[in-house]
Amino acid sequence: MSGNVRPVRDERDGLLAFLAQQRYVLRLTAYGLTDAQARLVPSDSALSIGGLLKHVTSTERGWMNTVLQRPPEGTMEERAGEYLDDFQFTEDDTLPAVIADYELAGRETEEIIAGIADLGQPVPVPKGVPWFPDDIDAWSVRWVLLHLIQETARHAGHADIVREHIDGATAFPLMAAAEDWPATPWMTPWQPTPT
Predict the structure, then answer these.
(1) Beta-bridge mates of residue 140
(2) Other CB atoms within 10 Å distance of the CB of residue 76
């Protein structure tokens, strides 16, 4: 996958392709990192690459559960604790496992969306959640996909900044390295710093 989304066939294909592109650029921020580097919190924020990957995985699954109208598990307090835990890349986590789980969540989303005939299908707004509006009864599946694109893109931007603080790597040199692009006068693919 390159820096641009391929041409799309229709709305559904476009929404899924743009979501897949944002997932890809977020995963690229982890390219070449060790587990220890993925745990680093090198800026004033509390964000790490590994934690961001865990968070977007949980978020995407949560939205698909909302689309499928699966009730959330646990109390609001337990879910709030889980939300905060989602941002933590612990000593028990490994980057390959977290990335594999994120890729699995993406495939699950694509399967769920493939089974929905109408992207205008209503998705009831969960009640009693402080950050959800009280005056709207339902979103659409289309809205949920657009929201996931927005959420993933926001966190991909966070991850870009975190990664640059870790070792100076930026998005296009990382993409060039991951996709084995040749060096050009205007860009050199990222390479690990010799130790």
Answers:
(1) 122
(2) 11
Among residues 12, 13, 16, the alpha carbon closest in space to that of 148 is found at 16
Kindly state the DSSP code that residue 129 receives in the 8-state scheme. Answer: -
| H/E stretch holding 82 | helix 76-86
- CA distances to 31, 40, 167 from 160, rounded to whole Å, are 11, 13, 11
Rounded to two decimals, the pTM is: 0.93
Question: What angle, rounded to 10 degrees, do the helices at 49-67 and 95-114 form?
Answer: 20
CA distance 18 to 79: 29
145-195 confidence digits (pLDDT tens): 999 999 999 999 999 999 999 999 999 999 999 999 999 999 999 998 876
> For residue 76, what pLDDT is reported?
61
- Token readout for 106 is 């993406």
| Spatial distance between the Cα atoms of 58 and 86, rounded to a whole number of angstroms | 7
Q: What is the 3-state secondary structure (H, E, C) of 2-39?
A: CCCCCCCCCHHHHHHHHHHHHHHHHHHCCCCCCHHHHH
Whether the CB-CB separation of 19 and 63 falls below 8 Å is answered with no
Closest CA to 156 of 56, 41, 36: 56
Please tell me which residue, 128 or 17, carries the higher pLDDT value.
17
Q: Is the pLDDT of residue 32 over 70?
A: yes
